[in-house]
Each structure stands twice: as C-alpha cells, then as structure tokens.
Amino acid sequence: MYYRRHGAPPPDPALVRELTQQQEEMKQQVMIQKPDFDLKLIAGCDSSFIGEDTILSVFVLLTYPGLELVEKVWHHGPVTLPYIPGLLSFREAPNLLRTYELLQQKPDLIMVDGHGISHPRHLGIATHLGLHLQKPTMGVAKKVLVGKYTEPAAEKGAVSPLLYKGEQIAAVLRTKDKVKPVFVSPGHLIDLETATAVAIACTLKHKLPEPTRLADHYAAVLKKEVY
Hints:
By secondary structure, the protein is of the alpha+beta class. The protein is built from six helices and eight strands, in the order ααβββαβαββββαα. β2 and β3 form a beta hairpin.
C-alpha cells in the first residue's frame, strides 16, 4: 500500500468523502462534444512533484498544426493535499491553474499529461482543468488508470478502445511503430474522435505528442534547475 511504503499516514476519511462527492458533482457538468473551435494554438501541461510538499507545473503553447513553440511558463509552490488515489487532480490542479494564468496568449485546446474521463469517476486532471477553465481539454496518459483493452496493431496510428463498465473512455493509440501505446481521452468540451485525431497530428518523432512531450521535458529540466 502507498502509505505504508512511504511512511505516510492514511488520508482523513472525511476529506476523502468530501472530495469524492465533489467529483461526483463535477462529473454532472462534463460535456463531451464535438468542439466548437478554430484550432490555432494548443497548450501542453505537466506537473512534477519535488519531494512530498512541492509541485512544479509547466505550460507550453504551440501553434497548430505547425507545432512551433510560442510560450513556455512555469510555477512552483507548496502542495496542499496528500496523495490520495483517484483524487490526484485536487493535488495538481491549483498549481496548474496558477501556471495557466501566466500565459500571455490563451490556447484553443489544452492537452494534459494525464487522464480525462478515463478515470473511475470520469474526473481525471484533464477534465478537472477543463471544468475550471471552461476550455476544451484532452488527456494523454502513459498508463491505464481503469478499464481493459486489447493491444492495437504494432504500426503507428493503430487504435483500440479502452473500455470501462461497458463504455469507451479512451483510445489506446500507437504513436510509433512497436512502442507502448498512449491513452487518449476527452477531458471537457471535446469528443474522443477529435482528441484522438489531434493526438496523432501532434505526434512527430517521439512517443508522446509534442505539447505534452515538451511540457514533460521542461518540467524535468526546470526541476533540476530549481532544486
């Protein structure tokens, strides 16, 4: 168990109940739909934890479809919530939202390194951010949180469904030949078909699409510079 391994006390059950209830209420506001945007600017974001009490978040802003870097902003601050499985978005979102405010230009779409609706209560970090910002968001995750799938074909662009309780919650996308797939899910104000198409269009030489790849890269670089 996480808490035993890390020598941390388990979270307050009342806090878990409160945040879980918040998720259930937020879930009712999620809108999965064909997006109404002219996609010219796309953001990528990621966070990195420094020890147990500090978080560093990065937003990059790229042109679309050219994928040229326009802006890069970051912010680090204290973590106000312990790690609680299924509730990680409450731990990450405050600092990500502060970082987002530093962007001089705002994106048409945010690609998040994490999950959208591919979450036990349909409320991963991409959905959480989308609801707060009322912006189209999508998640690109490296690992499954919930659900089952059949491996897609080995070629780049191959897709299979990630299913949970009889519903498709993500696309299992092979972004490079013979590499492990990523898991693309809508967050808010976008549909799975569009999110998957954008993820493919943003994937160049690497496994991860450029918006989240660059955010992940700069989070690692800045973490070393700051600490």
